[in-house]
Every structure is written in C-alpha cells, then in structure tokens.
Amino acid sequence: MYSQTVAQLSRGLQQREFSATELARSLLARIEGAQGALNAFISVDTETALAAAAAADRQLAAGGAPPLTGVPIAHKDIFCTAGSRTTCGSKMLANFVSPYDATVVARLRAAGVVVLGKTNMDEFAMGSSNETSYFGPVRNPWDPTRVPGGSSGGSAAAVAARLVPAATATDTGGSIRQPAALCGVTGIKPTYGRVSRYGIVAFASSLDQAGVIARTAEDAALLLGAMAGFDERDSTSVERAVPDYHAPLERPLAGLKVGVLKECFDKGLDPDVAACVRAALEVLRGEGAEVRDMSLPNLPLSVPTYYVVAPAECSSNLARYDGVRFGHRCEQPRDLKDLYVRSRSEGFGAEVKRRIMTGTYVLSAGYYDAYYLKAQRVRQLIVDDFARAFGEVDVLVGPTTPTVAFELGAKTSDPVTMYLNDIYTIGANLAGLPAMSIPCGFADALPVGLQLIGAHFTEERLLNIAHRYQLATDWHQRAPEGYR
Amino acid sequence: MSLSRRDIDNIAQLARLALSESEVPAYIDSLSRIIALVGELDHADTRAVAPMSHPLAGLVQRQRPDVVSEGDRHELFQRNAPQAMAGLYLVPRVLE
Q: Which positions 49-68 of B are in contact with A (Cβ < 8 Å)?
C-alpha cells in the first residue's frame, strides 16, 4: 500500500479494498522503521492517528465520504495542530501545544485526511538543508550522507521514502521546491494569498506560502484543491474561487509557450543538472510546446533582495518570542530585560539568530533606506521582469537547484554559500508567483528537479504541464533503494 | 564591507540577544559576508522605481470592521505560558 499515490489510495479506500485503519497502521510502522535512518518526523501521535482512521472507516462505511477520506498525510511542524505540539524545529517552541488548528489543517481534516505526524524542518523554516533543526538533521533517502534540502526536508524525505504519500510544506524562498528537487518528489508553492497562512508559524509574511509535497502532480492537485481558498483570518488571503485542479490535468500541451530562464543557466549550474533540464525541455517540445529562451535581467538580484526582505520580516515576526506568553523561558531571570535576552538567546539556534540580527541591522536607524527600501525597489524590478515575461510566454522553466543534494556539513560554515542554493527559487517568492518542482532525471544517482513558474493564479496550468510531463516520463516513479 | 565588534554588540542589543565571547567572531564574519552579499543591490538603478508594497499588483491589505470576532480563550492560551496566575502573565518585578 505504501507505494500507492493519493489518487490510488483514495480509490482503494472508497472501494473498501483496504481500510483507513490498516493503511494508517502500515504507514505508522514504516515511519517508525525509518525514523532512526532519516529523522524525518518530529512527532508521531499513533493514538490520534488511529482514532482519525477509525472515524474515516466509519464514514467510508456510511457512504458519501469525500475523496480524501482516510488518506494518510503528514504536516510540516510549522502548522498549528490543536492539542498537539508544534515546534517549528526550534527549542523555543519545543513544548508549545497549539491552542487551535491552522486553516490548512482544519480544511484537510474536513476533507477526510488522517494525519500521521509532524515532519522535521529547519528551525523556523530558515535553512536549505534541514541542518538547523533543534531536533537534528533529516537525511536524504537517496543517500543518507546527504541533505534532503530545506526547510521542508522532513516532508520531502518522508514522501520520497514512501512513509506518507503526501505532506504539507511551506515555501518562503524555495522551501517546498528545493527539498522536492533534492529528494526526487513533486512540490508546489501556490500564488501568494492562494492558501491561508492562518496558524502557520510566521517567518517572512510577505513571502510565506503553504503548499504540498507529493509524488505526482495529480496528488498535488487533489491536496491543493482541499487546502486553497479565501480565509478571512489571513489578511493577505485572496478572495478568488478555487478552480478544479484535477479536471484539466490531462489537457494537451499543444501551443504552450515555454520560456527557458536564461539566467538560471549560469556558471554555478552543474552541467549534469543542466543536461537533465535540457532533456526535459525536449519532452515538453514532444508534447507540442513551443520552447524559447527568456531573459529576466534582474533575476540575479533575487538573492541579495531576499536577504534583506526576509531577515527584516523575520526580525519583526520573531520579536514575539520573549519568554513571557509562550515559548522557552530562561531559569531565574534577574529582571525583565534579562528574561527577554536569555530566553531568546537560549531558545533560538545560530542560523535564526543570524537572520534576526541581519534583519535588525537592515531595519536600524540610518540603514533602513539603504537596505530595506532599496531591496523593495529592486523587488519591484524583479516583479516587472516576470510580468513582462508572462506577456510573452505561459510558463517559465529551468533547474530548481544548481546542484543535486550536497553532503551534510558541506555548506554549514559559510551562510552565503548555503543561501546561494536557493538562487533559482527565490524569484517566485519575491513576485508571489506559483511554482513547482518535478523530478526530471538523475545526476550522480541523485535526483534533479525541473522548476516551472507561472503567472499569478495559474496553478491549474502548472499542474497540467507537470502531469503531462509525468505521463510521458517515469522519473517521479523512481524510489530510493531500501524504500521501494 | 566588514562589521565591527561594536556593530555586532549594538545589533545584538537591539535584537535582545546575548552572544558569548566565543560566538562573536563567527557572527562578525558571517554578518559581514551577508552585508557584502546584499551590497550587490547598489548596482541596480532604482531611481525611477517605487518600493514594492504587494507582490500582486493592485492588491492591498484587506480591512475588517473593528468589532470583536473571537471569543475569550485566555485560559486556553495561558496553558502555554511559562508562568501565569489568575489570568495574568507573571514576569520579574519591574518597579521596586
């Protein structure tokens, strides 16, 4: 059962070929078996999962259960889940019990899913390798000496290792697409405002967006359809109807205009990764797409822009962790300031402190105009570049990452080297665009991801392209040895 | 551009963080690298560009009537408080 997709499991459950309880038990055993090797989960609540599965079985027996009833998934540990722990990968929140559900969690529960556990992640979603987690690094199922990517490394590794068919994730600068690429799975980051941010621990609020990691575009479509939609509790949620993402999946690609992101084929791109991406372009051509080069001259400024905007928003958002109302509190504070300073210094890890300090610096008196306002101006230039490109093409494609998964510890000594890992993914966040990563081959026996970026609210089209690509190829069906 | 020890101390103080002596050199080094990276923005000509306010053109923050929309759940929320009593959050004495 573990090798089946969400779509297949949904059919099996609806036709009563197996029960939600059998399915949950089988995957819980797999999760437990893989935990020592991968460390993909922070929490697994067997009792709650089995109770949800039993409820799903009753609903399935009664008839008329929605299609996702009984389908097991995991949530990234950044989504609040009422009554259970939400750590965000941090010591600061190691004992935080969510008082309410994130909108995404509530909607998926209403759609019938069974939550098996919460996945590991970089602390406060700040990282590209899952090495900043307070709960230890996640390992890549394709090669345990390598990182799974981050920040949604646990979700990507769990889906790649067939521990769950799909998992929720969030993406602020590439945190869905980069780990999806490095683990050989499918990830979608929707348009900013498409999915509610309510109940998601905040990192950089103008960039954060929730999405899905699954093995196929079809599964991503099924889950995104259940997650997306207007939510009055998120002030940036967009009031716009959610289309049926599943129905148009098989639409032919004849006449599709594909722009190849010229700036992504830079000197940092591994030639073997480039070869996989070029081969994928041929597949799209074979499907009837017209492929041509597109230049977005300001795209190389994405990384410096992001490392002003994201830390600035992070330093502001994380000011709330003061040891007073929730989160870690130091022992025996001398006075109020000591309480603030020591609680924060003990509760946050090194990368989170680095980002808070970067943000504090760029927002401090005398520097605000030079850094923050300047970055927001450059951000507008990047937004304009994308808008121009989407006047000419339907979708932009390129590699998701410059290289395949790197070794644990390889980039921890220099943060800038680590940041450059997100060089191709950050642009979509700055411009609020929907983007996907899908498996498109292997280099050195490690998965390579193809990135698709669309105009605002074209998730439907991206999923359609990804699905057609997956009908023509089998990269997404490959499983790492030991997890087949 | 390289940050000084004084810069780092000042930033840490503003961010309500305390760095140990052994951590300081690493933060000076990594923050200097990050500031050098973001310095690349200086090359962009932005004289005719207004700072972006929302990634989706024309959209602004939605507003709602200023009325109570949530019930009082302070007891539930205070279960996560390190120290609370009689509905109040407890902190060290501020006034002597």
A: 49-57, 59, 61-62, 64
Asked whether A214 and A166 are in contact (CB, 8 A), the reply is: yes
d(CA A68, CA A4): 14
Q: Is the pLDDT of residue B54 over 90?
A: no
CB A228 within 8 A of CB A132: no
Per the CB < 8 A criterion, the answer to whether A280 and A440 are in contact is yes
Angstroms from B75 CA to nearest CA on chain A: 10
Contact B11 A361 (CB under 8 A): yes
Is B64–A232 a contact, with Cβ atoms under 8 angstroms apart? Answer: yes
Three-state DSSP state, A214 = strand
CB contact A386 to B (< 8 Å): no
Closest residue in chain A to residue B12, using alpha carbons only: A357
Q: In this complex, do B44 and A337 lie within 8 Å of one another by their Cβ atoms?
A: no
Q: Residue A337's pLDDT is what?
A: 96
What number is the ipTM of this complex? 0.96
| pTM of the full structure | 0.97
Element of type H or E holding A118: strand A114-119
Intervals of chain A under pLDDT 70: none
> 3-state SS string over A426-481?
HHHHHCCCCEEEEEEEEECCEEEEEEEEECCCCHHHHHHHHHHHHHHCCHHHCCCC
Chain B interface includes A83 (CB < 8 A): no
Bridge partners for A451 per DSSP: A398, A437
Instruction: Give residue B55's pLDDT band: very low, low, confident or very high (50, 70, 90).
Output: confident
